[in-house]
Amino acid sequence: MAQRKIEKSRRLFKRAQKVLVGGVNSPVRAFKSVGGVPRFLSRAQGSKIWDVDGNEYIDYCLSWGPLILGHARKEVLNAAALALKQGSTFGIPTETEIELAEVLKKAIPSLERLRLTSSGTEAVMSALRLARAATGRDFIVKFTGAYHGHADSLLVQAGSGLTSLGRPDSLGVPKSFAQTTLSLPYNNIPAVKEAFKKWGGKIAAVIVEPVSGNMGTVVPEKGFLESLRDLTQKHGALLIFDEVITGFRFGFCGAQKLFGISPDLTCLGKIAGGGFPLAAFGGKKGVMNLLAPLGPVYQGGTLSGNPVAARAALELLSLLKKENPYPDLNRKTDELVAGICQEARKAGVSVQVNSFGPMFTVFFSQQPVRDYSSAKKSDAKKYAAFFHALLDEGVYFPPSQFEACFLSSAHSDSDIRKTLAAVGRAFSRF
Ligand SMILES: *Cc1c(COP(=O)(O)O)cnc(C)c1O
Fold first, then answer.
1. Range of the structural domain that residue 113 is part of
2. For 302-409, where are the alpha helices, taking DSSP H only?
3. Which of residues 261, 292, 322 is at a domain's end?
4. Fewer CB within 10 Å: N-end or C-end of the chain?
5. Residues near ligand 1 with C-beta < 6 Å?
6. pLDDT in tens, 74-132
7. pTM, two decimal places
């Protein structure tokens, strides 16, 4: 297919680079790992997005996850507009915040007490501080390739040995901070056991994405999450589920319900924020009550529990509950994934397609992907070629090999068919 016209995006990208660092407000948007010109959007509706040059795309990025009912869902926008008429922010409590917290608590019972924040990063950062306060310990265990936002303690890569202390993964993260974080391989129970044996008395918490979305989709193997629960309990550490992606993704609940595990703390964002800047963390009452004003752990925010965002989130959650799109989302994703595998076989292209519920990743690899080191064996150059071929076909996948694609209830069977035809043509170019 002919290259699309992208002159306006090209011009905007040049202009953006003169005022915004790298032309963007979040790095992956700049297309650095796939090359080329990032598309600047003008609008979106349902499963579709339109760029400023008028090109239409079927969107599988979906703002990185929040839009499980698709873009610009009328009821959600109306709810936000109605709330906005009463004022955009007060910094004084509202009933809306209580309502939202009640809905979240009912859907995810481990959230005995909650706090609303404006971003997932803040939710995670606050949960870590709380875990450290609750245990009187400093160390955090995370998994390599996971993303939990950009707090200092989590921008950490593995040390030299399997259970050595971490090293900064970004300039500007103090080495001493990084040395309070252990970054272990996902799905590796022996590594976690070893870490607890070595550092058990110092570990405040283990933080994990129950289904990993940020090294691409990677599913927890049988017993992995259960072991984390057992080991944390045994060693007096907290288990934090970062459900910013997984919360309300697979059902009207957290992934914790699917796996039958009750974490001490849970972080939410994306879907739970209704496509607005709203996130949350919460958990056991005894731990959460350490937060100010009840306790000595500070946390707060000018826009926390924002009434417009909270009203939109409530509306999205109420639609989700009413419409229960999950069985249909799973069916469509299964069809898409099976179709992609079939097209790859036809074209003789080696891919591994990992999926769980309505999220999936096409890894250009010959080996199963079960952690970051196997994910990294994928051919990112091939992914970049695939990504651009799809873009030319009007299909928008995330601009990096190490991200998850998402489906929304607005994705139709015809979208799936069109996507598969595009995927087939993209593979045939290899
Ligand atoms: C997106 C994400 C975050 C960070 O949320 P922001 O709202 O972008 O700050 C944290 N954890 C996970 C698992 C995420 O996917």
1. 74-322
2. 307-323, 326-347, 372-375, 380-392
3. 322
4. N
5. 119-121, 124, 147-149, 209, 213-214, 242, 244-245, 269, 279
6. 999 999 999 999 999 999 999 999 999 999 999 999 999 999 999 999 999 999 999 99
7. 0.98
